[in-house]
Write the structure tokens for this entry.
Amino acid sequence: MEERADIDHLLERYLHLLHEYTSLRAELNKLQAGLYQNLARANFAAERGMRYGQDQYDDRMQASRRVVAFPSSSSPACATFEVVKVEESGTADAAEASVSKSNEAVVSEVQSTRREEDGDKEEEVKDSLAEETKPKSLEPKAKKTKDPLRWFGLITPMPLRQAQAQGVRAVEDIVPKLVSINAEMVQVEIEVRRARKKRAKAEAAAKKSEDVTSKEEVTI
Amino acid sequence: MASTADYKDRQFLAVIGDEDSVTGLLLAGIGHVTDPPDSQKNFLVVDNKTETSAIEAAFDSFTEQRKDIGIVLINQHIADKIRHRIDTYTAAFPTVLEIPSKEHPYDPEKDSVLRRVRRLFGE
């Protein structure tokens, strides 16, 4: 009886996961359909002979969205997936921010100490500091164009950008959830089969003991 | 049970699909080419001329040889061509997910996950 309750509980969990899986599937289908439609629109409006496809891929491409897997909180035996954006220029941005921050601090310090002094001199100091910061802050900016849209030119059509947004949503939100649910479903399937096996064994043992007692009764 | 070591380095998504599917996903930033001399791509563009053996080889490469792939996305109509491989693939890493394509919408009857569900309920 207890085993049956366990199995029912597991199946209930499994059906919840299945419901989640099918609704995510529907969402993915909708997103993918929109993505294909937008790509078709971009190709339709493109210059003659131009097609947004593999001919324009960059052979040195580096993934900016990557998979992170970690043990699931609900059942540690299976993994949960996430797709995160990797900021290639993250360090450059941070460096840029710190450089400009420190310079701002220097400027304000200079301003406070020289308040009583001549205004023209202050202007000169500000200008010279601004000049110093300019080349430093421009350098890292030049490195950070890793956007795949740029494979297709500097000015890309709106449908292509919309297709990219839909692709990002599919990859970041839907795909990792779908694969995580799939992993959890596999785990529950294993548990259900184990529980069924256990129940079958228990039933067989009970039947055997029943047979033995009935035989004993007959002999008495 | 999957240990942390199994998926620690699996940081890329791979895709086997038609040109539009691959373009859409690469636009999202999942495309990666490893450093030369290997220069291995994590995607395969499949068209009418692509041999089934090439699809199978790419699937093998993404699921067995390469240890940096965490998720393999494959168009459902392409998965149909190597259905025996997809259905017998049971490893937890990388995980395989079938996605719809432009000309072949998602068919739940062919989905390996839903086939497993039917098996569990004894159909």
Observations:
- Chain B touches chain A at residues 1-2, 4, 7, 10-13, 19-33, 39, 42, 45, 70-71, 73, 92-93, 95, 97, 99-102, 105-106, 108, 111, 113, 116-117, 120 (CB under 8 Å).
